[in-house]
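Structure, all two chains, one model.
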Amino acid sequence: MMVLYTNKKICYTDFMKYHKDTIEIIFFARGGQGAKTAAEIIAQAAVLEGNFVQTFPNFGPERSGAPTKTYLRISNQAIRTKEPVVDPDAVVVLDDTLLDSQKVTEGLDKNEALIINSTKSPHEIRDRIRFDGKIHAVDANGISMSIVGQPRPNTVILGKIIKVMEVVKLESILEEFRKIFEEKIGRENCEKNILAIEKAYDSI
Amino acid sequence: MSNSKNNNKLALTGGYAAAYALRQIEPDVMPIYPITPQTPIIETYAKFVADGEVETEMIEVESEHSAMSAAVGASAAGARTVTATSSQGLAYMHEVLYIASGMRLPILMVVAARALSAPINIHGDHSDVMGSRDSGWVQIFCENPQEVYDKTIIGMRLAEKIKLPVMIIMDGFNTSHSVENLEILDAKTVKKFIGEYNPEHSLLDIENPVTYGPLALQDSYFEFKIDQEEAMGKASGEYMKITKEYEKISGRKYSLFEEYQSEDAEKVLVLIGSAAGTAKDAIDDLRKKSENAGLIKIELFRPFPFLEIAGALKNAKEIMVMDRAQSIGSYPPLFSEISVSLRNVHEARISSMVYGLGGRDVFKKQIERILEGKFKEKYLT
């Protein structure tokens, strides 16, 4: 499936909550799980669509396996602030073991979304963290293993994030993914990854 | 940054933006120490070299002291020379910084400004570059990746024009690792803007032999130092000329400092670097509440624009200076410069505070409190 990027502008104001000009997302992950890459793919896709972005890691000591936080802002206006995101519109968790040590829902209210890579059901997750908002669980590892043959939850979960948040179009994500990865991992592998992203997008 | 939707084509980190500008400049020589604390600039540029996109001679050395020493050698030999460093790396270069400026070598160095040990910290603040403020280098600060890209190009041209080394400074991590939109020029335009480098003197010009950095004792050392000061004095004027020319090709305007809503403001915040973005948002909010606030963001720190600052602050009743470095045992560096600028000029109340040391976040609400007169401490922790 090849969808060409169309230059159509979309207006995000309908779903920008509280009349915010800027959508803010926090990614929780462990060092090496590729949260930065995931945030950057969404950012670059938003740039393709003519929007303004900002993404940066929470600059803790970067060690493989240590909990990390990455911030993403998307806006239809230039972004000037350098503040870390403290009042996110959505939180993405790439590793559900982080629920034990990180307050992932801090700043999220009941109209906002937690998107989590987990084999558990939203119900089970809710029991564990006491959160009133929407929980979107996706087995990104499982999807990735079955289609790509390797655990690549960071890119697979992109499908789910944009299904829930609609911050960019799926086609823009796929275009950006191809741009970054086709040369690196070969065409066949790249297309498998894309299938996995689409599967996460379509998952319920 | 322009709000034009058609032009926000790229999103890059500050580090990548510097590397991108350097790729378009394509210096002859880039001596580097590639190990921590280094910036992403070097690894990005190394990839450009490996991919055959540029023909720069990258020289890997065993320390930053050697990196700057090799830069001195390359520049004296007549090569267009650049390097990059950060934090302890800049501190370790310190001795050789004075040699580069004393020999009037137009070396360009991009610095991701970061904290100094001890205790160990790798995050953004201005302690490293403030430690070099008297080393005879021009210091140009950037707020965001767009400014890093633009000022890297402007800086190369300035260095070669005034025969002084130039530091292009971005906030470590806050800018060096933050992906943001920016517009770039095409390579041809950049090459044309900076022009060919034809050094007036070079060690490899054996028809016209010269000596660099010889012994100069009581009879002449003093005069060399006076000459350096004079050369630095001309830097502001040349910087303004070059930025005006750059504006013609890019549409982006730079100056000695940026005045944001400050011209009619009673309360003016003065700071340097990436926190300016957050401060602008704070000022917009305060203006909606009819608080008469503004910002001056210093771009050229060396030479410091004393007279122009005095002019720009003449109507301010309260001036709040936020430093991201200390001068332990004295007032912080920017506060000292602002105070000296205003001496005998007027009687505004000037207050000093230190923020962001070792990467401590600064929030819009905090800046608003400062401008509202609700924050009375010395440290914005």
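Chain B has two domains: 7-184+217-250, 257-380.
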